[in-house]
Amino acid sequence: MSERQLRLSEDEVASGLVTVVGRPNVGKSSLVNTIVGTKVAITSPVPHTTRTRVRAVLDRPDAQLVFVDTPGLHRPRTPLGERLNETASSSLEEVDACVLLVEANAPIGRGDRFIAELTPKGTVVVLNKIDRVRPGQLLAQLERAHEALGLEGAELFPVSARSGEGVDELISHLVSLMPAGPRYFPPGMVSDVPEAFFVAELVREQLINFAEEELPHSIACRVTEWEWPLVRCEILVERESQKGIVIGRGGQVLKRVGTAVRAQLPEGAYLELFVKVEKGWQRRPDIITRLGY
């Protein structure tokens, strides 16, 4: 019997908080979704998709790990960007383990090194997107990561959030780092994100996908009415010209978004989408706070 097993009482498991940090678009949300086995955070190829701190729960008979998915740390240009950085950096406090994500298919840059300097001692480095590189390239990137990040003695795990390769090994290592303690959340709970907020995020995810790079950072969504099965969601944009892009010719974009979101909701859900112009909302702290960012 291991030392860990000896110190776990009947009502204790290996439990703790794991924060996941990295540059925008390195795959933090995708990795968290893969680890917990279900979608708890929206994803897209567009940077800064994640705007809030999302807690996702991996619950096993022997352990409960609460993963804190954060916005990507970056050089902010708006009050919204500053708020996202505050959210990400504050998540480094009082956690049991920190995971720093970097990419296997991109150079280790100044942004990665900047974030590495903020992380606590014992940070676990995860090299994501190994499915996109050849074995020889992966070995070279592993060496570069050790050298460039300056995290002496850090454990480094190559994984693919997309395929799941290497994820089990990462989970086992993180479990081994957790202290003995009670479960934070009841069995079956995979996230602390309110349903209404998650639906609004699903709408934003689909708008990002359909609108592509025309206006993703100018879109915000919030549920204004929840009388199940009726859900009304308000879509904010910053300029009148953006409203037409979001609605689409003959309302086609909104129709496609609504169809894609309803496919992810319980059967019978009725989703109404409205578009509203809120000029310069990214630069207005009152609206940023109202949106929950």
Elements, N to C (H/E):
HEHEEHEHEHEHEHEEHHEH
Overall strand count: 10
CATH superfamily grouping of the largest domain: P-loop containing nucleotide triphosphate hydrolases
Strand percentage:
15-25%
Helix percent reads 25-40%
Distance between the termini: 46 Å
Tell me the CATH topology of the largest domain. Answer: Rossmann fold
Multimerization state: single chain
* Secondary-structure-derived class: alpha/beta
Number of individual domains: 2
The whole-number mean of residue pLDDT values reads 85
Helical stretch tally: 10
| Largest sheet composition | 7 strands, mixed
Give the overall shape.
globular
Using the CA coordinates, give the radius of gyration. 20 Å
Return the CATH class of the largest domain.
Alpha Beta
CATH architecture of the largest domain: 3-Layer(aba) Sandwich
Task: Describe it.
By secondary structure, the protein is of the alpha/beta class. It has two domains: 3-181, Rossmann fold (3-Layer(aba) Sandwich); 195-290, GMP Synthetase, Chain A, domain 3 (2-Layer Sandwich), CATH 3.30.300.20. It is built from ten helices and ten strands. The chain has helices at 3-7, 28-36, 79-90, 110-118, 135-149, 167-177, 195-211, 240-247, 252-262, 285-290; strands spanning 13-22, 54-59, 63-69, 97-103, 124-128, 156-158, 180-181, 220-227, 230-237, 270-277. β8 (220-227) and β9 (230-237) form a beta hairpin. α7 (195-211) packs across α9 (252-262). It is globular. Residues 1-8 have low confidence and may be disordered.
